[in-house]
Design a protein that fits this description.
alpha/beta; Gyrase A, domain 2; Isoleucyl-tRNA Synthetase, Domain 1; 4-stranded antiparallel β-sheet
Length: 588
């Protein structure tokens, strides 16, 4: 026996409305689960909603509706509560039916019906100029889980990484690699302070030498430094003029690298890109994060889309020229100031390519697009949304979800955890410390836009205080009980769930029943943390029941019913953990 509780109650309420207020028989009916179990299984505020229109007291109207509800074998009790809510309590048979639903649907338990809505989720998209750090890790965990939740809820999802393979940052990485490479041949130029300093650059330089010898080292230090302005004294490091001088020094070095290497410059540039992008791919793969498309920023220039997007904005009157540069009137769309899209030297800005990228998304026909950015990019939202509107596109189809940084703690103290002083903590370091499962689960324990304190000691502990251990242990316990039974799993489908009568059992059934609703809410709200919260609550209910009741009792009917309940819990935990990218161990 399987019924749709909301559909059943909606039908009953409409029948009552036809008797009490037939003109409102088609009114929208909201049914929600009360927060307290004692208030029934579902509640509606329909009486309060119509009271003013019908000029009736809400409680009185609720009473009239209750009196006109058709009888149902599935509804045990109906009562008026509070200011005029109508609470419904189902019979135990309705509550326990969820057990067989979960068992029969298996890996599809909780899955929503196909919606025919194409959603693109773009996340991580870190510049491929170095290893991923713990901030990228939170964005990766959130984006991957959100995409999986959306797909499970019935959306057609495309997961995308936007590769920033064009622009100045990649030029800086290529220069940093080349200078480290030259040093191996005694050509000491010195690495500018605003170049990439990490050991990973030195490792790439060694790989470049091993593969190509001195092919790119047939220059002198004087050649590299020709016409390069000197760096300002270090004591002026915070001075605005000194910062500008450092940038000029760096740009001059990049210009010389391009001139001296000629066609080989793009080869060195490509080597740096491929090495770092390959490292990012491997890191994310080990983290359980996968993409359907890696979109190249360079392709936007190669296809002329950047030029087309800016020209289209200019044609529509949203771009003006000032001091030789082209500016987008982003203040007309709520931004704090106008933004340059093409500099006076003809080079397009990063913002221009971002406009083109969003135009490309719309042209690919996605119904909805979700950009997942670090919280430090919050000021970027108005200008991007403004550009979308300026292009004549529906900006409501694009949402931006912001992800706050994660702070690591050990022994209650904030820690860098890095073995390389002064550098960021890599995602790989964190994963090696606490494991993939703990990383993925802890990262989605809070709303993405909330600050996250990551307790390293707790993440590694095997205790009930560790949420991922607590949930995984519940799954392993359910598996253990079924292993001890050792009979054919097919028998569970024949269980008489009417034998589930205790408060623990009915409460556990009620918790199972909301799983599909939690999935839908997590998808609509872009909130995979709701899945994590739910799994902790389900695990708590299961542990309480497991400790209170024996499963392998003599009564065959009760035993089979309890084992079926354990099987349903196991399936629900496995499905939920999968959505979060966390394993569901069968033993611990």
């Amino acid at each position: 026996m399987s019924i749709d509780p909301k559909a059943l109650l909606t039908e009953l309420i409409r029948a009552a409305l036809k008797s009490v207020a037939p003109e409102y028989a088609d009114a929208a009916i909201l049914l929600e689960r009360p927060r307290q179990a004692g208030h029934g299984d579902f509640a509606t505020n329909i009486a309060m909603q119509l009271a003013r229109t019908l000029k009736r007291n809400p409680r009185e109207l609720a009473g009239l509706l209750c009196a006109e509800l058709p009888p149902s074998e599935w509804v045990e009790k109906v009562e008026v509560a509070g200011a005029g809510f109508i609470n419904f309590t189902f019979t135990p048979a309705v509550k326990t039916a969820v057990v067989l639903d979960a068992l029969s649907q298996g890996k599809d338990w909780g899955r929503g019906a196909a919606r025919g809505v194409k959603v693109q989720v773009e996340f991580v998209s870190a510049n491929p100029t170095g290893p991923l750090h713990v901030g990228h890790g939170r964005g990766a965990a959130y984006g991957a889980s959100l995409a999986d939740v959306l797909a499970f809820a019935g959306f057609e999802v495309s997961r995308e990484y936007y590769v920033n393979d064009a622009g100045r940052q990649m030029d800086i990485l290529a220069l940093s690699l080349w200078l480290r490479y030259l040093a191996q041949f005694g050509i000491e130029v010195g690495l500018p302070p605003n170049a990439y300093q990490g050991e990973y650059v030195a490792e790439m330089a060694r790989e470049l030498r091993n593969a190509h010898g001195d092919r790119f080292a047939r220059v002198t230090a004087a050649d590299v430094l020709a016409d390069v302005p000197e760096l300002p004294p270090s004591e002026r490091s915070d001075d605005k003029e000194a910062k500008a001088q450092r940038e000029q020094h760096l740009d001059a070095l990049i210009g010389n690298a391009r001139r001296l290497l000629g066609e080989d410059y793009q080869w060195v540039h490509g080597f740096a890109l491929n090495e770092q992008l390959g490292d990012v791919r491997d890191d994310l793969h080990e983290f359980g994060v996968h993409f359907d498309k890696w979109f190249s920023e360079r392709s936007l220039f190669d296809t002329g889309l950047v030029e087309r997007a800016v020209s289209q904005l200019e044609h529509m009157g949203h771009v003006y020229v000032q001091n030789g540069a082209r500016w987008f009137r982003s203040t007309a769309f709520g931004d704090e100031k106008d933004r340059v899209v093409q500099r006076d030297n003809g080079i397009y800005t990063y913002f221009a390519s971002d406009i083109a990228y969003h135009l490309n998304k719309y042209e690919r026909g996605f119904d909805h697009m979700i950009d997942i950015w670090g919280a430090d990019h919050h000021g970027y939202v108005p200008r991007v949304k403004g550009a979308i509107k300026a292009l004549g596109l529906d900006a409501a189809r694009t949402d931006v979800a912001l992800v706050q940084f994660a702070v690591l703690y050990r022994n209650g103290q904030k820690t860098s955890m890095s073995t390389r002083a002064g550098e960021f903590v890599t995602l790989r370091e964190l994963r090696n410390e606490v494991g993939k499962d703990a990383c993925r689960f802890f990262y989605v324990l809070r709303k993405s836009d909330q600050h996250l304190d990551f307790d390293l000691d707790l993440a590694k502990s095997q205790s009930n205080e560790n949420p991922v251990y607590y949930v995984q242990y519940a799954h392993a316990r359910a598996c253990s009980a079924l292993r001890k039974w050792g009979d054919e799993q097919a028998k569970l489908a024949m269980a008489d769930t009417g034998a589930l009568e205790s408060e623990h059992e009915l409460g556990l059934c009620a918790r199972l029943a909301v799983f599909p609703e939690v999935v839908q809410a997590a998808a609509v709200d872009y909130a995979p943390h709701q899945i994590a919260f739910y799994l902790r609550e389900l695990a708590a209910d299961f542990h309480s029941w497991y400790n209170a009741e024996r499963m392998l009792v003599d009564d065959e009917t009760v035993k089979l019913a309890r084992l079926a309940l354990a099987g349903a819990v196991r399936q629900t935990l496995a499905n939920g953990l999968t959505l979060l990218g966390v394993s569901a161990p069968e033993s611990m």
